[in-house]
């Protein structure tokens, strides 16, 4: 039995324990069933002449079939390419052409989109067909598989907010060390359970809690789409112990009518990240539900478990992303590559077995980002005198106005300290006088607040040259499918406003 074949191990140790539950179809698989179904799927893939290194492109929601596919692919050395079903047909077509899959799989929810893709010359199956096969067939021959740690397991395409999407290679080695980092920080055991509502086309949908809990022989609940009220009820009903949610998701949950009534006493931690976790959010959940929110930092190219803020420090160190996890090295460097001193801003760099070997079909991008084993994240950060880390924004987001380096996240923090501002986002554009200037977008809890009043309040805590040249008040800040701020939509809005002036 291979040491990386966690499902086979748990199928041997605790065969009748529930491994996965889909709350969309109210169906569960035990560890024994997950193991058996994966073996049957391998038999099917062998019939299709799939070989180690072949890519399988998937256009489907997360769920039971995806988990069976994961186990089968890991054993065979096949590479899963989860496609973002929220993208247009044109965008998805480019990804299919880039990864050159040997098999294309989709589920019924995305049939219309799948039929418009350039897959006429590919082997094509539906998840429904696969499910019928592995549940009906009786061929479950026990085989020995050698799972190679350097074999790619996933190709995750980045969102493309700073350019065209790039395929990040995710290996079995990354999977293993990320699981250890996560388990060490949170004390995960086989007694734990989670409910995953994050999409499969993002590393968080697999590697925040799903694969670490699979490693520990714990229980993984699955919900295809995030529904604030439904997830609260499920967390209560199933006495869930660990949960991951973006700040936007948590805000939606606390506004539901059932929030005050649900019992979440078994929920040890909520992990949050993907964007800045407001200290007010941390305080609210601790006060109202006695639940700790643990902010952290991760990215597709590494982990994603990179840093974590201990729950008892979340209030004492507001806006911090914590300290580095166990099995990685981290440094912050200046333009010369020199490590900066505490409280100095520089680029965050990561080294260790959680770092990707590179980008699919993009050796130039790989060599630019990974130097002597160090991943240059493109994120600006600093540490305080006690070693706690703070994000200062993306390297591409920093702008120079009148010769001064300006970090948007610093301005966003000050804007959100103003009473009645719910959310603030700061971007930059070219400016004839200063070279570049800031544009701020805010959403309000009180419609009476004006731009003039915002500027007056900002003057109290922020030096003048850091003030945004433009401030726009929006009903809501637009978000991506992952709940992150959609900078593309904000730039589009700004350009439309400018064109009308």
TrEMBL record:
Annotated AMP-dependent synthetase/ligase domain residues: 9-360
Keyword Lipid metabolism: no
Keywords associated with the record: Ligase
InterPro entries, per database record: AMP-bd_C (IPR025110), AMP-bd_C_sf (IPR045851), AMP-binding_CS (IPR020845), AMP-dep_synth/lig_dom (IPR000873), ANL_N_sf (IPR042099)
Taxonomic superkingdom: Bacteria
Domain (AMP-binding enzyme C-terminal) ranges: 410-484
PROSITE patterns found in the cross-reference section: AMP_BINDING
UniProt keyword RNA-binding, yes or no: no
Annotated Pfam families: AMP-binding, AMP-binding_C
Stored PANTHER family: ACYL-COA SYNTHETASE, MEDIUM-CHAIN ACYL-COA LIGASE ACSF2, MITOCHONDRIAL
Record family assignment: Belongs to the ATP-dependent AMP-binding enzyme family.
The protein's name: Class I adenylate-forming enzyme family protein
Species the sequence originates in: Psychroserpens luteus
